[in-house]
Specification:
Blueprint lengths: L1 E2 L7 E10 L9 E6 L6 E11 L4 E13 L4 H6 L2 E6 L14
Antiparallel strand pairs: 1-2, 2-5, 3-6, 4-5
């Protein structure tokens, strides 16, 4: 449990989501945009690498950490979560290009 504002007696829970990045080129980078239709008090995004012993490689991961009130309907929040991924390799005809990760 993560403790929110003690002045208001809030107790928060941390939810971690890890998504493998499988189709990114070595000279490409991503910009992430996140849409929460529900109120989310705080969240954090990052990228890291994790060793995949099955394939003997380091796998890049997109990480999303959400801090939610204790007892929040995590499944409902995750179900409605939208993550947009913008690539540094834009197609010339489009202003923005997204790619599935």
């Amino acid at each position: 449990m993560y403790t929110g504002s003690l002045d208001q007696g809030q107790v928060m829970q941390r939810v971690f989501i890890k998504v493998p990045i499988t189709k990114r080129d070595k000279d490409e980078f991503y910009l992430y945009s996140i849409h929460f239709p529900h109120e989310v008090p705080s969240f954090r995004t990052s990228e890291t690498c994790e060793y995949d012993s099955n394939r003997n490689v380091f796998q890049p991961l997109f990480l999303l950490t959400m801090y939610l009130p204790a007892g929040a309907a995590v499944e409902d929040i995750i179900e409605d979560l939208e993550v947009y991924v913008y690539s540094s390799k834009l197609e010339r005809k489009n202003k923005f290009w997204t790619r599935n990760i």
